[in-house]
């Protein structure tokens, strides 16, 4: 593969794309200067057109081309999402889509074969670029991910993906990918027919050139054989295609209650485009892309992309604070939470010691952790030896052996201050001075916990959410004495295990539970007033929450809710009065789903069967009151929003950004509303204040607007002035 000066031509060293002709193969290397990832920006599009023009002109002895990235970890991360913020109306998005389509059509129509050599993320417009190539080779690296995540941004693929993917892998498989935004590693992408070969990283370029040569000579035919035109075979049987789309539509509506326009529009674009020539299908795509890109839903989801990325990359620690590497973690308390924390840590390559007092309890925790790891590994189609390597990373113990090597300790014992104090002291006698001492408490102030410690500067809250392997947030709580390196290391640990960390200051309920509490308390009050269980849940799922508040009571456990409610009521007596309803439920032995008895009834399989009508007699409130859905939504929703603003006002939150990320990722605040602060900006602080004042008049001072909200309303201020 020797490259000689005469064969090699470099467009410009600082250009986002470079083309070298090596042994008759044009190697197109992507490396956007000054960007952490390659994105399809105006500059990249222009540079690619330049290169395609040269290839079309011929004359350089080029037989085939390979597109490869020089950026570690990404091939192409898709369109530049930053540019979406500048779209003023549908025409801007439509133009951007057409520009992308034009480039990729030109790539697809080259007379020479092209090979996408993918190592790292090929997402959105990145995968669409690969789909326009003749052949795709991906690496087996864990960082290689292929997918079309556009619906998660409130849009649809806009550079040909809605037309090319179904034509390549079929309707049902492509809808599954586009509706969920799921990302596949190289091997899974091959089994779905998206890539043709999977190779180890070091040989990617060599193998891509080999494939390019073989395609040029005719020795190799593209296997995934792009079926041009509509998908052939079984999916075209009379009735079947309609059935696939009907089922998909039903799935979307039942999951989203029609609150997200993008997935429904995606189905329409794919269905209508299937029997059309590619160009006509692309027309539909561009129009829909333009319209969706300026919806409020898309703007909110783009906001969440940037806020969550920033929360991951920008911890609030003094400049120059360096985190310690986290390779060993010890978890104390092998219950459901402890086992979950052990599993997610091991999955990210960390060696874990899982300790409980009794060997049987430790063994039980180990089994739970391993079961979680196996379930997740099977979903990723890992090989048996890889699964064994994963599960071997967790070791159970009833003693403190091996703790001296731990970089981070996560204490996850029962929620009781004196128990936690005792455990903390014990742990400290087995670890060094440079170990982070984290507590997975959800209610106990961290400063209170740190009182028992000989090294309070090492103590920090690491609040995981249940179930740990599914919930994306890690709430990190510092007390005034926490050392910056401890915060930085905890943040790095959270990021390493795939969580989005936010750092907040110590306060009762921290951030997530603090804003959830008044919302839950208000739901209980409405029950007492005679609103039905179903009306309450339905109102909030229609507002966009994944489950309603009454279901959430049952899921969390009524005893747990009761305890947390009392702690919060003690701290914020004016607005979080504990409800009699919860006390009556617990006194009746109703703990929620965990004992099959709560606000709902449960079948033998543990599945919810319906509201338990006998609850109304128990709580002394028959469902008699008609409260409009909007009023329920305002009473609950604004309680949470107002409380979120108070936490920013008090300095519990470092930023509105963290508040939005925490509410969406920790407690299911509807993502398409962007988080409580983005919501206030969207509807306007004046509007929120007016609605709160109306509620205050009708129901009392707990609805009094936060001072910061009043200031924003009076001054026309925004939490995100830059939009
Ligand atoms: C699309 O493609 C539409 C097309 O169909 C049609 C168009 C016509 N744009 O996450 P990280 C930044 S829609 C702009 O920390 P990682 C990110 O903000 C797009 N910026 O790294 C961060 O900036 P900063 C579909 C982007 O290694 C930095 O890069 N694609 C973009 O953990 C590092 O990011 C997606 O939705 C972007 N597309 O993960 C993929 N991507 O340093 C979105 C990243 O200032 N991206 N940045 O904080 C990702 O999923 C992850 O960033 C990725 C890397 C997996 C690529």
Structure overview:
The chain has 723 residues and is an alpha/beta fold. The strands form four sheets. Strands 12-11-10-13-14-15-16-17 form an eight-stranded mixed beta sheet, sandwiched between helices. The protein is globular and about 80 Å long. The site of (S)-3-Hydroxyhexanoyl-CoA has 30 residues, from helix 2, strand 6, helix 3 and helix 11.
What is the fold's blueprint, element by element?
Layout: E1 17-22, E2 25-30, H1 42-57, E3 64-69, E4 74-76, H2 90-108, E5 114-118, E6 121-123, H3 125-131, E7 135-139, E8 145-147, H4 161-169, H5 171-180, H6 186-191, E9 197-199, H7 204-217, H8 240-256, H9 261-273, H10 278-293, H11 296-313, E10 328-332, H12 336-347, E11 351-355, H13 359-379, H14 384-391, E12 394-397, E13 408-411, H15 417-428, E14 436-439, H16 446-450, E15 459-464, E16 473-478, H17 484-496, E17 500-505, H18 512-529, H19 533-543, H20 549-556, H21 558-571, H22 580-587, E18 600-602, E19 608-611, H23 614-619, H24 629-649, H25 656-667, H26 676-683, H27 685-699, H28 707-715
Parallel strand pairs: 2-3, 3-5, 4-6, 5-7, 6-8, 7-9, 10-11, 10-13, 11-12, 13-14, 14-15, 16-17
Antiparallel strand pairs: 1-2, 15-16, 18-19
Helix pairs in contact: 1-2, 2-10, 3-4, 4-5, 5-8, 5-9, 8-9, 9-10, 11-25, 12-13, 13-14, 18-24, 18-25, 19-24, 21-22, 24-26, 26-27, 27-28
């Amino acid at each position: 593969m020797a490259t000689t000066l005469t064969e090699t031509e470099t467009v410009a060293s600082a250009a986002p794309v470079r083309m070298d002709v090596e042994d008759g193969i044009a190697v197109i290397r992507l490396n956007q200067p000054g960007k952490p990832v390659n994105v399809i920006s105006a500059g990249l599009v222009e540079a690619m057109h330049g290169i395609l023009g040269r290839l079309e002109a011929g004359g350089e002895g080029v037989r085939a081309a390979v597109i490869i990235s020089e950026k570690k970890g990404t091939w192409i991360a898709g369109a530049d999402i930053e540019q979406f913020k500048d779209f003023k109306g549908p025409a801007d998005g439509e133009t951007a889509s057409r520009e992308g389509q034009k480039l990729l059509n030109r790539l697809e129509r080259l007379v020479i074969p092209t090979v996408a050599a993918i190592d790292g993320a090929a997402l959105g417009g990145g995968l669409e670029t690969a789909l326009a190539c003749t052949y795709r080779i991906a690496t087996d690296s864990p960082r290689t991910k292929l997918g079309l995540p556009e619906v998660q941004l409130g849009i649809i693929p806009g550079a040909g993906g809605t037309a090319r993917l179904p034509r390549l892998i079929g309707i049902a498989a492509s809808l599954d990918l586009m509706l969920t935004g799921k990302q596949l590693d190289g091997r899974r992408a091959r089994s779905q027919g998206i890539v043709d070969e999977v190779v180890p990283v070091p040989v990617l370029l060599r193998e891509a050139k080999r494939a390019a040569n073989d395609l040029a000579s005719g020795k190799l035919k593209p296997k995934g054989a792009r079926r041009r035109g509509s998908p052939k075979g079984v999916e075209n049987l009379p009735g079947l295609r309609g059935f696939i789309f009907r089922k998909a539509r039903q799935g979307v509506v039942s999951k989203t209650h029609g609150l997200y326009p993008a997935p429904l529009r995606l189905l329409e674009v794919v269905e209508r485009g299937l029997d059309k020539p590619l160009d006509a299908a692309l027309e539909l795509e561009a129009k829909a892309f333009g319209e969706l890109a300026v919806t409020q839903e898309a703007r909110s989801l783009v906001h969440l992309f940037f806020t969550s990325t920033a929360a991951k990359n920008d911890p609030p620690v003094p400049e120059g604070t360096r985190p310690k590497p986290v390779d060993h973690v010890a978890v104390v308390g092998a219950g459901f939470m402890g086992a979950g924390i052990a599993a997610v840590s091991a999955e990210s390559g960390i060696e874990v010691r899982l300790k409980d007092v009794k060997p049987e309890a430790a063994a039980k925790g180990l089994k739970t952790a391993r079961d979680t790891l196996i379930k997740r590994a099977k979903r990723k189609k890992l090989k048996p030896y890889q699964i064994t390597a994963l599960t071997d990373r967790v070791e159970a113990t009833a003693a403190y052996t091996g703790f001296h090597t731990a970089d981070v300790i996560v204490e996850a014992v029962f929620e009781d201050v004196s128990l936690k104090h005792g455990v903390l002291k014990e742990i400290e006698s087995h670890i060094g001075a440079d170990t982070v001492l984290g507590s997975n408490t959800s209610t106990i102030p961290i400063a209170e916990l740190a009182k028992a410690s000989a090294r309070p500067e090492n103590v920090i809250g690491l609040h995981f959410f249940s179930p740990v392997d599914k919930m994306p947030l890690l709430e990190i709580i510092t007390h005034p004495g926490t050392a910056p390196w401890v915060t930085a290391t905890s943040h790095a640990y959270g990021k390493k295990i795939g969580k989005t960390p936010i750092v907040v200051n110590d306060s009762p309920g921290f951030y997530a539970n603090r804003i959830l509490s008044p919302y839950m308390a208000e739901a209980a009050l409405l029950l007492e007033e005679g609103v039905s269980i179903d009306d309450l849940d339905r109102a909030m799922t229609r507002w966009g929450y994944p489950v309603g508040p009454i279901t959430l009571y049952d899921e969390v456990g009524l005893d747990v809710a009761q305890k947390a409610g009392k702690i919060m009521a003690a701290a914020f007596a004016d607005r979080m009065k504990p409800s009699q309803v919860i006390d009556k439920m617990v006194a009746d032995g109703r703990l929620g789903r965990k004992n099959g008895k709560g606000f709902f009834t449960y079948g033998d399989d543990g599945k919810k069967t319906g509201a338990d009508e006998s609850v109304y007699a128990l709580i002394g409130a028959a469902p008699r009151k008609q409260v409009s859905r909007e009023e329920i939504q305002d009473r609950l929703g604004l309680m949470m929003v107002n409380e979120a603003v108070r936490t920013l006002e008090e300095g519990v939150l470092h930023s509105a950004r963290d508040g939005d990320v925490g509410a969406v990722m920790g407690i299911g605040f509807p993502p398409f509303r962007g988080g409580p602060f983005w919501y206030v900006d969207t509807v306007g602080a004046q509007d929120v204040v007016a609605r709160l004042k109306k509620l205050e008049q009708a129901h009392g001072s707990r609805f009094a607007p936060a001072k910061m909200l009043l200031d924003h309303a009076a001054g026309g201020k925004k939490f995100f002035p830059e939009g």
